[in-house]
Design goal:
Layout (H helix, E strand, L loop, with lengths): L1 E5 H8 L4 H8 L3 H11 L8 H6 L19 E5 L14 H19 L6 H8 L3 H5 L5 H24 L5 H27 L2 H30 L3 H23 L5 H23 L5 H5 L3
Antiparallel strand pairs: 1-2
Helix pairs in contact: 2-3, 5-6, 8-9, 8-10, 9-10, 9-11, 9-12, 10-11, 11-12
Keywords: DNA-binding
Organism: Sphingobium yanoikuyae (Sphingomonas yanoikuyae)
Pfam families: TetR_N
Length: 293
Amino acid sequence: MKATLTRQQLYEMAWTKPLNALAADFGVSGNALAKICDRLLVPYPGRGHWQKVSAGKFQHPPPLPDAPDGIDTEVVISSVRSASRRPRSRMSESDRRRQIVDVTRQIIAASGTHAASMKRVARDAGISEAGIYNLFSSQTELFAFIARDELAQMSLVMQRELQRGTDPIARYALSTLAYLREVKEHGSLVQVLLTLPAVRDTLKKERVDRRSANSKAIGREMEAVYGVPPPIAEGTAAILTAVALRAGKLLTNRKTDLSIAERLTIPTAMASTRKIIATFGCRLTGDAAGQGI
């Protein structure tokens, strides 16, 4: 038997009956049909799906992703082996990694981290389970990669805001505002991932190092601009960082809203910083003096 199908047609047929039964209709093995689906990024039911359907537990199939670059949208399925085969065009490793990350994000957003098993992610991404393990050695590594990516994006936004400030206090205020707004927009995913002990342990050193670097940077500026002694400057910076992080955590846990977090965090931190500078600082720049510090 020989049949020419579009990806859409194959996708729809794959969710009407078990893959082995569908493969038999075409005169090919279930494994051969699964490989065709994997190559075309066509999701198909995993093990146990049809038993759940028989038990009355209907499950919506995942959406059909875009076709891989360089792959035809039609496929010929034949029980007769072709004499020659066209070379396959494979997705690059970076594109495949990004696809896996995007699919994992969608699963977590819809069903939580417990649903994002490596098998489920591979199935929804339309690749073999071995394929996903070639890029991520474990679920923890995959989750840590996503959390690291989210944190890096948030840090990027904060760094852009830092460059707009004219003095340490203004830079702190701008970066904290940017942080809180990023947390509101994207922080829930990071927070969910960091509730997992294995992910938290994986990222612990990186997060501690990043927090320490941020505190030291603020402390150095306070010392250079306002003459605050290094121990006091770094201590103040560490407290400012902790205040911002705490506000962000309350925000992601929905224990406060963005407007309240902004109104409480920024004025409190700035007033405290001005008090520290007035008490321990030994010199002021013209700009700082103009602000009434």
